Structure formats: structure tokens, C-alpha cells
């Protein structure tokens, strides 16, 4: 408090001294200012002129600040944004785009595009948001606003346009866009990759077969292997159609010859191997199909092929189960293998064995398939209370359709003959399992 009083007294003293000095100066130094413009003259006291100049400078300073404030307030309403505000709006738009809020994203990104340091990025993201909302016309319109000024940007915009057509399921327009881009940029690997993919979607396998050799040295090995695998799958399906009226033995021989012509790295693609096995089953050679899948799994353990083995239609399902159980030594805690064993047990009407494998599969790694199929089995066995609990657990996981498998008769309708059939099947299975173990 004492310091404050001292400061006030000092200010008052300075004002008194300053006022006295100013009065003395104005009294002892008289003068006037004369301003003449043509025939008009303006004359005033020197000190009045100085005071007027000071007031005018202060008014000018605050006037400029007021105009700036008014401009900032009215600029958004007029659709005019500064670079800083546009950058902030673009940032909000990109964050909304990443969150999947496409309605907000396309609005904010488009409004900030003109002042954005990266307008093409704004327009690409806005177009993708519009397409995500199902408005293909608006998405293409956003891309039309862009004016790429060099090759890389031009390729990017062409690829973006092709992607919009792909998501709109307009493969013809996608093909036309990519063909035009390929003419303008014949050395673009990405354009040729997408072009090859489009030919596959349209079923133009002759064009794919022509392009793949040229793409091989340019594409990553995994991508080229994927494209080559799709071509082989298409060839297998074509063989299935051609062999519809052929003798099963001849059809199987042709399939095996075709398979031997393929490189080992192509044979090791799960989808390709599964399609080959499916083709063999169609012509009635399930034994060779099983052998092919088992050979694949010996060299490369893959869950999709393990699942496929459990869904194969085999002429000898008992031997199929025995072979699969032989894999348990190396993969005792594999949930997918245990699920496959449960399904093969179901095909052999070994209900108790199937129940045990389903439970072990769930313990190793819960899946909705295992829960759903176990609950369905328990219902058929009359264990309704336990089945309800298993169904409840199944609902917590992702939805998956259960495959068609043999089921035991409902508990209320079971006959003694059905109950006696299971031990006989189990005894035969155990005998086959022992033989398979000795061979392995």
C-alpha cells in the first residue's frame, strides 16, 4: 500500500512539473503556423497545431485498427479467408476425414482449398469423402477443380479418379480413365498395375496375360505373385468349364498336368492351391485333392488351408480325420486345427470327439465358428442349458455363418441303433489313427 501511494505521488508531481514547464514554454516561445493552399490560408497558434497533429495521429492509429477488426469479422461472411485461417480449417477438415466424418470433412476441405498450401491434398480428401457418402458426381466434380501442373500430380489425379469409379462399381469408366493415363504416362508402374487389376475385374484375361511379363521386373515380388496367382485361378476355372463333359480320369490328368506347369511359388499361394483342390473334387478326384492340400501344409502351415481341409468333401473321411490328427503333434494348441478336427469328427458322426475338439479349440482361441457349431451340436444332443450358455458366448464375437455339417438326431428322438453306431465308428477311427501314426 505504501509503494502504491508513493507511485501516485510521483505521477502527480510529474504532471505538475510537466504542466508548469509546458505553460512556461508556450508563454515564452510564441509562434504560429500558416498553411496556404492556392488562395485559401489557414493560420493557428503553434501549440494548437501541435495538439491538433497529435490528436489526428491518435485518431488515425485507432481508425486503422478498427478497419482491420471490421475486415476480420466480415471476411468469413464474404467467403474470403487468410492463409492462416485456411490452414486451420484445412487441418480441421483432415482430422474430420481421418475420423470418418465425411460430411464435415468435404465441406471444410473445400472451403479451405484455395488458400491451402496443398490444395490438391484438400481436393483429393474431399473427393474421397464425397465418394464415401455415395455421391460419385460430387467426388468427380471436386477432382475437376484441381489443376495439376506436372506429371506426378497428373498421375495422382488420374489414379484418384479411377479409384472413385472402382468404388462406384463402374469398371468401364475406370478402364477408360486408366487407358488415357497410360497413354500420357507410359512409364508409370502404378497406372499399369491398376490397369491390370481392372482387366481382371472385367475378365479380360488375354490382356492380363499380355501385361504380366512386362510388369514382372517393375512390381514388387509379392504383388506380381498375387497377380499371377489370380491368373492361374482364372485358368483353373476355365478348365472346369471345358471339362464339364470329359471323363473324370482324363479331366483329372489335364488338371494335374496344368498344375505341374506352374512355378512352385505359385503353387504355394493358398487361394491357388485351394482352387486346384476344388477343381479336382469337381472332377471326382478327391484323393488327389487331399494329397495336394496335405503336401501344401507340410511345406507351409497356413490357417486358411487348414480350414479348407476340414471342409473338403472326401471319399474317405475317416482317413482324412486320421491324417489331420497327425498334425496335432506339431501344432497341439492350434485353435484352427482343433476346429478342423471337430468338423472332421462331425463328418464321421463322432459327436463326443467333436464336442471335445470344439471345447479345446475355444480354449486355444475363441472363435464364433467354434462357439456356434458347438452350441448347435449340444442342442442336437439335448444339452439345451449348456447350449444356451455357449450361444450367449458366441454372440460376443463377430458374426460368421456356420458350414453345413452332419448333426446327431435330436436327443428325444434318438434310437438305440444310432447310439450303437458311434462306438463302432470311433473304434474304426482309432484303428486308422494308429495306422497313420505308425506311417508318420
Automatic annotation (TrEMBL):
Gene3D superfamilies: Tetratricopeptide repeat domain (1.25.40.10). Residues 31-134 form the HemY N-terminal domain. Pathway: Porphyrin-containing compound metabolism; protoheme biosynthesis. The chain crosses the membrane at residues 45-64. Keywords: Cell inner membrane, Cell membrane, Membrane, Porphyrin biosynthesis, Transmembrane, Transmembrane helix. Coiled coil: none annotated. Residues 400-440 are annotated as: Disordered. Pfam families: HemY_N (PF07219). Its main location: membrane. Involved in a late step of protoheme IX synthesis. This is Heme biosynthesis protein HemY. It comes from Halioxenophilus aromaticivorans.
Amino acid at each position: 500500500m505504501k509503494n502504491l501511494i508513493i507511485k501516485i505521488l510521483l505521477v502527480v508531481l510529474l504532471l505538475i512539473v510537466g504542466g508548469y514547464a509546458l505553460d512556461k514554454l508556450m508563454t515564452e516561445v510564441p509562434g504560429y503556423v500558416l498553411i496556404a493552399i492556392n488562395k485559401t490560408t489557414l493560420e493557428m497558434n503553434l501549440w494548437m497545431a501541435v495538439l491538433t497533429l497529435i490528436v489526428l495521429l491518435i485518431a488515425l492509429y485507432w481508425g486503422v485498427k478498427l478497419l482491420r477488426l471490421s475486415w476480420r469479422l466480415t471476411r468469413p461472411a464474404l467467403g474470403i479467408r487468410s492463409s492462416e485461417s485456411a490452414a486451420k480449417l484445412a487441418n480441421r477438415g483432415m482430422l474430420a476425414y481421418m475420423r470418418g466424418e465425411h460430411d464435415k470433412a468435404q465441406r471444410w476441405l473445400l472451403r479451405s482449398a484455395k488458400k491451402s498450401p496443398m490444395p490438391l491434398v484438400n481436393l483429393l480428401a474431399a473427393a474421397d469423402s464425397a465418394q464415401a457418402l455415395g455421391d460419385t458426381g460430387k467426388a468427380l466434380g471436386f477432382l475437376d477443380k484441381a489443376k495439376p501442373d506436372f506429371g506426378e500430380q497428373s498421375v495422382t489425379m488420374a489414379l484418384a479418379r479411377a479409384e472413385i469409379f472402382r468404388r462406384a462399381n463402374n469398371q468401364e469408366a475406370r478402364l477408360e480413365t486408366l487407358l488415357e493415363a497410360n497413354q500420357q504416362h507410359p512409364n508409370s508402374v502404378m497406372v499399369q498395375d491398376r490397369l491390370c487389376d481392372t482387366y481382371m475385374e472385367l475378365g479380360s484375361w488375354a490382356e492380363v496375360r499380355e501385361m504380366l511379363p512386362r510388369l514382372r521386373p517393375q512390381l514388387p515380388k509379392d504383388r506380381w505373385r498375387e497377380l499371377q496367382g489370380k491368373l492361374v485361378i482364372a485358368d483353373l476355372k476355365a478348365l472346369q468349364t471345358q471339362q464339364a463333359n470329359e471323363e473324370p480320369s482324363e479331366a483329372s490328368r489335364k488338371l494335374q498336368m496344368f498344375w505341374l506347369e506352374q512355378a512352385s511359388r505359385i503353387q504355394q499361394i493358398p487361394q491357388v492351391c485351394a482352387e486346384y483342390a476344388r477343381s479336382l473334387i469337381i472332377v471326382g478326384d478327391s484323393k488327389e485333392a487331399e494329397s495336394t492340400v496335405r503336401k501344401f501344409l507340410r511345406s507351409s502351415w497356413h490357417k486358411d488351408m487348414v480350414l479348407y481341409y476340414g471342409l473338403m468333401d472326401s471319399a474317405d473321411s475317416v482317413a482324412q480325420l486320421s491324417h489331420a490328427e497327425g498334425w496335432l503333434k506339431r501344432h497341439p494348441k492350434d485353435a484352427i486345427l482343433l476346429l478342423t478336427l471337430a468338423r472332421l469328427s462331425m463328418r464321421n458322426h463322432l459327436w463326443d470327439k467333436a464336442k471335445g475338439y470344439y471345447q479345446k479349440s475355444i480354449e486355444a482361441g475363441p472363435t464364433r465358428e467354434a462357439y456356434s457349431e458347438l452350441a448347435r451340436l449340444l442342442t442336437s444332443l439335448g444339452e439345451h442349458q449348456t447350449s444356451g450358455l455357449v450361444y450367449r458366448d458366441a454372440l460376443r464375437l463377430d458374426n460368421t455363418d456356420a458350414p453345413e455339417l452332419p448333426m446327431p438326431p435330436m436327443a428325444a428322438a434318438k434310437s438305440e441303433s444310432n447310439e450303437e453306431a458311434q462306438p463302432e465308428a470311433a473304434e474304426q477311427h482309432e484303428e486308422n489313427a494308429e495306422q497313420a501314426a505308425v506311417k508318420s
